[in-house]
Amino acid sequence: MATLADVARRAGVSTATASRIINNSPKPVGEALRERVLAAVAELEFVPNANAQQLARAHRSAVGVIVHDVSDPYFAEITRGLQRVATDHGRLVIICNSYRDPERELAYVDLLHAHQTAAIVLAGSGYHDAPVTARLDRKLRLYESTGGRVAVIGRHEHAGDAIVPENEHGGYLAADALYRLGHTTIGVIAGPKHLTTTTDRLAGLRRAAREHGHRLTTRHIEYAGFDRNGGMAAAARLLDRNPSLTAIAALNDSMAIGALACLRERGIDVPGRVSLIGFDDMPISVDVTPPLSTVRLPLEEIGVRAMSLALREPQAGPTVEHAAAELVLRGSTAPPPPAGRTRRPARTRPPGD
Amino acid sequence: MATLADVARRAGVSTATASRIINNSPKPVGEALRERVLAAVAELEFVPNANAQQLARAHRSAVGVIVHDVSDPYFAEITRGLQRVATDHGRLVIICNSYRDPERELAYVDLLHAHQTAAIVLAGSGYHDAPVTARLDRKLRLYESTGGRVAVIGRHEHAGDAIVPENEHGGYLAADALYRLGHTTIGVIAGPKHLTTTTDRLAGLRRAAREHGHRLTTRHIEYAGFDRNGGMAAAARLLDRNPSLTAIAALNDSMAIGALACLRERGIDVPGRVSLIGFDDMPISVDVTPPLSTVRLPLEEIGVRAMSLALREPQAGPTVEHAAAELVLRGSTAPPPPAGRTRRPARTRPPGD
DNA sequence: CCTCGTCAGGTAAGCGCTTTCCTCGGAGGC
DNA sequence: GCCTCCGAGGAAAGCGCTTACCTGACGAGG
């Protein structure tokens, strides 16, 4: 393995000069030497040791990202935005999957701290778990105290720069839309109870219910994993318990798609007999049948803004920006069937996007 | 920022002892000192500098992964498998997105090399571009010569450990299924021409055509980006050019889903008037309507096997394993409509998975 | 009683780079 | 013609850690 010393030796210069030329430092260097060194680099196929560079240099370069799971489209979209900004700034990004395990999340913060990343972006729901939250906060602060920058997405527990999606408002929009269509009781397919994303969105749903003079009872809420299969299972339980339900709100699109599969399996027409609304507006949502009504969150943009915050010079106080939730009505929602539970395939919009 | 020296000082021991205790090295250390050091670590909230560790230590720990785009479900699935194995081995994985840019791919190989990763897994199609391929090969060899391990997924150009999906065979299976159903000419929605994945799958399609006494002409092949929108656009062009087409094979599921959107938009019944088959069997494929017939590739397993190869002790010769392609018929394929182009909504299977 | 082995613990030499500070030669000023 | 200044290049001091090697004390064996 060729080292800088090898290059210097071959070019007949000191390592100092070689280093300057390779990193084209501001210090002026003669043209002849420059060429000799560059030639040596090419001949030796020299690749500088990034760890040694990091150690010797003052500034940090890579940035770390902790998400629940990149293979979840929600995070995939966010990650795309994060990546783009980081790449534009010439930063390597290290992606870590916590798989929604708080311990792993803590471990990754340490790991990124240890690797001297310039910034950590924490994407994904917080936990309703005070001890864990406190530990996370400590670690983040410690990291910041060493010069690291932190930006979080959608978690209020850490006081620092943050992009927070309007989860509560989005939940409100979803339920409000359903009530406006004429539904009177809506079933909810929720993610894990201990995630703040779940409770925030649920709170919005509740507020809409109250405003419309209804209530969301536990009987109408099913908790499950925040993915397709969770949604499918929750839909099944919900329907078994409340056969006359005319509307279902899923707390994310993956779950909604699982619910759709369940409804299809049972031969229940959507939106003729049951309306369904999701949350997030994942790209695939337009491609299922019927196309999913949902609450759009500007996922990629959230990533872009979070990384911009993280890469920005630290400000005096913490910056908290909101990401707007927006109702998107497609084909999966319609007024409830007229009493007698007849099939009623009317749609809020023509199918096909 | 607390350093090992700070910890040692506070505990009243040498850095050597502190290091031994923290990394619990085999060298025996007295219980009293151990406790003092551990206490100091806790009080100072010491986080070892990973770069310094890497520099000082002999062995490497992190592994790098280069994919086209994690947010593409195809790579998301593979990445999940890669991750799992890496995590089980206690390795941090650094994920890099090349966005199908060969230059970026080369840069990332250097970068991972520079960071002294223990292994590099290259996932994603190779390019029909001899100079780039040669440069990549050089870089990979250089990296290997410094002790790095390399495993590639689905690229034959690098002689080393590899998992190669049966792309040609899969293409054959897709076209064969269509011909067996009675279709006589099939349109193809292909990915970028310069990707080996495209040409390999296409070659399989061609072989099936030959065996069934047909030919795939350029008139029936449309190239586009390997994603949903590419598929949608290609389907439109294909249909405009060949209005009487009864079957379409898309070279991956994302494109197939785009094609489905195009067909839906034009009110063309699938599979009644046109059959559609995809490739890869992404998780979402069962959830579109009709559920997509496709050629399944064990994506996550491919990731698992590739990472296992990369983390294994190097063998004498290169190991090349194949990942089996398997035909999965769902609702999007059926026999062609009987001559007169009447609608014929018969299906190969009942809908709903 | 002296020597040797053993073992806890410390000393210090790197790992591969960056960067400060120093040197040295030549050009310019008086 | 001498002194100063400047600029190209080098020597060397770290960056924070690991680990081979050394030390010194103590118990055992001769």
Summarize the helices and strands and which ones pair or pack:
Two copies of one chain form a homodimer.
Chain A: H1 4-11, H2 15-22, H3 31-44, H4 50-56, E1 63-67, H5 73-88, E2 93-97, H6 102-114, E3 119-123, H7 130-145, E4 149-153, E5 161-165, H8 167-181, E6 187-190, H9 196-211, E7 221-223, H10 228-241, E8 247-250, H11 253-265, E9 275-277, E10 294-296, H12 299-311, E11 320-323, E12 326-328
Parallel strand pairs in A: 1-2, 1-3, 3-4, 4-5, 5-11, 6-7, 6-8, 8-9
Antiparallel strand pairs in A: 10-12
Helix pairs in contact in A: 1-2, 1-3, 2-3, 5-12, 6-7, 8-9, 10-11
The first copy, chain A, binds a DNA duplex (30 and 30 nucleotides) through helix 2 and helix 4.
Provide tags for this entry.
about 350 residues, four-stranded parallel beta sheet, homodimer, 12 strands, six-stranded parallel beta sheet, about 15% strand, elongated, DNA-binding, 12 helices
Structural commentary:
2 copies of one chain form a homodimer. Chain A is of the alpha/beta class and 353 residues long. Helix content of chain A is 43%, strand content 14%. Chain A contains 12 helices and 12 strands. The first copy, chain A, has a 6-stranded parallel beta sheet, with helices on both faces. In chain A, helix 1 crosses helix 3. The longest helix of chain A has 16 residues, at 73-88. Chain A is elongated and about 90 Å long. The relative contact order of chain A is 0.12. At the A-B interface, helix 4, helix 5, strand 2, helix 6 and helix 7 of A face helix 4, helix 5, strand 2, helix 6 and helix 7 of B. Chain A binds a DNA duplex (30 and 30 nucleotides) through residues 3-5, 13-17, 19-20, 23, 25, 27-30, 33, 48-49, 51-58.
